[in-house]
Backbone:
């Protein structure tokens, strides 16, 4: 088992020394360490992973033992353990490619997660959920029922103690109330290279503008549509020969890969958020 | 010597046959042919290159001989010859990297062009022009003198019978009057993946948005800033470690390559424009 | 319905004209045409697609009507129709990712094919075949039974009139006899950027060499292992942090995409083979 | 001014703590830290950068003060300072593109280096050297004079106390004797994605194999031709349309970028070598 610390605070002398001393003095061996100093903002960010094998502090006591140090730095922090799989809920509508990709990769052991729910406003992907033995929850949504249904979703998610929500081409805009319940815990895939082509029909927008590449962007959801902190993005080249239909086909590959990458990074506790941007320790 | 036809018209049966017959009956051998049918717009686009060696029509007579056929199709067309190098004027301000790249590549024989003028609102790059023996014209521009100076530039460019103007990080916005004199004859390089980050300081905009890649876009200049038909674009990945200064450094490589690619395509007569978009026959 | 001609022959004047006349005179409208002249080898290659709607020659008569023209050129050629789906057999062993990808894409309508058989030397992927309702054939292979089992496979494939065989991480080397039965009809995916890291364990080879990128290559199978004509290849960047296990994980994405691309090109009749190399009209 | 430690040793508990304590106790502020643990080889690699402003140990004393710690770890290590520019000698023959690129980037301030010599077996690039005011040394080499001329080069390089030699398309193979004088101090650019297409004429080899991409690789020179530790590599896509001449043209861009990247990493002290492979802390 490995412990992973994610921490951010105002930059100051001795941060790495104090943190690595805490680990070293308790007989932990650091297997991975990455840090970033943002000189403009005077901020310090770090991810440290160390083996729990032989570590003198028991897992259950680590929080309380590390707490005093973190308080001295006035830090935002969390410690996770590789044996604790974050709980994931996937929101979908009718498209199956992003869901299929996540389920397939998870079966292959690529993701450090337990998928506890697939939630949809349509029943279409129930069959796929069953193939992979994941509970499927159907919450049909109309303009009238949206607030109420979201409330039921929130209750379900809270009850299941969800760590992450992934919108795998979920075709509903979440309300401000919903989003506020899960800050930096909702990841979306948008099928354009943001900030270009925000909003609906980005492939059509891209076709009409005549760009020579299309993209996909995975980002945290905030209340500003398609403006949340970006975790991963990529592009592929297109030409004048590509119709909108071809863009949709080629874009599906990107959506799958970019979402998978963002998810992989999050589940390995590699992502920090600060002032609308991410630090991704790859 | 090779002749290159670029033609567009409404789609109809027999276009390829008639065009290739014209070439074949006059004993021309096609060495390259690429066509595109846009079914939505019912448009036909073609680029055909054939060897003039053995061709029964003399170069000077080709226009008049092809004219009747083109009229039947109601086509927009041009025929160019590899031995006739398009005349190029390069606009610059103070940054030398894009200019340096063009001059260097041209010396290496990469571009089918004759560079006849380097025009600048600043004197800084005169030395570089001299190294490559290209006439340098200095047109200082203030708010008050802009209209007048542009008029002088237009006259100079017309007198030199310019085929293409490249804005190699020229830091002035050309007036609508200037642009209208050279439709689809002015190529710009913008240092972002358009349509994202239009206008000034795109690297700073990119940094502030927290994107995970930066781009460059080469496009024809129209009177809508950064909205002209896109010829080429590309990106490179960045991370949270990259400051604005690093983006500028990394972006320079992209700017040089993307502009060079657009220029190369144009000078080989591979670019057609239709309704705000390009067809690039690579 | 669209007809697609693939043709190659020695280069000579008038080829495009004669071929496009044949189409035009019979009232066909060309929707896509791409050609390539290899001046070194004096070879001509073309792909032409035209609408059969309104074409004066019936589908069943096209071969005999085009035959005389092709004979004049001494051409190698074939004509296919979009409504005729090539029949595909997929060979697998135990890894499911390449198979899963093909089945998933096919269900999504990306491939112009009918998958008629999944053939394996192991029973492991029978379940996946059943999910997609594709007949699964299990041919266990030992050193002693190889010749005999391959003979049975050949008979099955001939009986089903297979157009293409895809080796989707099939972990057996096909015998020279087998390969000779299906010239340019067997596509393999090799998990390296060929010609580097031929043979077994390419990811381990890559790790040991310390390359900064890994690749995947899809190629036609010939009797020289991993030396057949290359259809598609791509790479992704890696770093010193990537263990062999990480290379395997990252490489899977490449394998899936590169094989899918090669397959897509073949099934749209975009691939010609000449002297150990491919012409891919994308 | 920033101090940069590069260190490698057998992995053991407390390495990061001890190193960061050394810095912290002397009032240094770490601005960048990257480490890598190779569990297979039980090796530890680290790069740490800290501000010398306010650091209690003077620059001239750092070596002796750090020495005891490094000895305890039995480490291989070096400490460099940003204000000390590594001295670079560039070897060229007749091609100017790689040289031009380095000189141009250096003028632009991209490289942390002092270029002290351009050494060539041909006089062709003397003019370019003069433009940039770099001393040019001409050592014509024949089979008979090679040993003697190399000896003179070695003496010159030793006298100038060179930190790095870059072979910018130098068309001579350095002797084992020469190479042994500068272990991990000679960087070459090879115009293929190694280990494919080693040796001469890689573009021709690539063309003949029919690959769908070409590459460039920058690596340390060892006595096994094109088999030294790889620092950077990249590729671009090509098609059947590209002649060898086109590959040369397109490849030049790659060569320039990949060599520049390797050089940039080395000059910022980001490269460690261990058992034929590199760790590049980007």
Residues:
């Amino acid at each position: 088992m490995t412990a992973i610390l994610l921490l951010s605070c105002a930059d100051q002398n001795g941060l790495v020394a104090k943190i690595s001393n805490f680990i070293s003095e308790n007989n932990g061996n650091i297997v991975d360490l990455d840090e970033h100093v943002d000189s403009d903002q005077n901020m310090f960010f770090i991810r440290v992973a160390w083996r729990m094998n032989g570590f003198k502090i028991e897992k259950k006591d680590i929080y309380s033992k590390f707490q005093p140090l973190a308080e001295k730095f006035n830090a935002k922090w969390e410690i996770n353990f590789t044996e604790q799989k974050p709980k994931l809920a996937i929101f979908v509508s009718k498209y199956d490619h992003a869901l299929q990709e996540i389920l397939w990769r998870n079966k292959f052991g690529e993701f450090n997660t337990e998928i506890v729910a697939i939630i949809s406003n349509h029943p279409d992907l129930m069959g796929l959920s069953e193939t992979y033995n994941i509970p499927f929850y159907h919450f049909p949504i109309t303009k009238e029922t949206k607030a109420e249904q979201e409330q039921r979703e929130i209750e379900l998610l809270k009850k299941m103690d969800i760590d992450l929500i992934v919108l795998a081409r979920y075709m509903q805009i979440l309300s401000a109330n919903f989003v506020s319940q899960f800050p930096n815990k909702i990841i979306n895939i948008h099928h354009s290279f943001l900030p270009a082509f925000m909003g609906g029909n980005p492939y059509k927008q891209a076709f009409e503008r005549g760009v020579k590449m299309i993209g996909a962007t995975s980002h945290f959801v905030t209340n500003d549509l398609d403006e949340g902190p970006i975790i991963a993005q990529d592009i592929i080249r297109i030409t004048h020969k590509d119709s909108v239909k071809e863009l949709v086909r080629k874009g599906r590959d990107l959506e799958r890969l970019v979402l998978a990458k963002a998810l992989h990074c999050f589940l390995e506790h590699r992502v920090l958020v600060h002032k609308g941007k991410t630090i991704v320790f790859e």
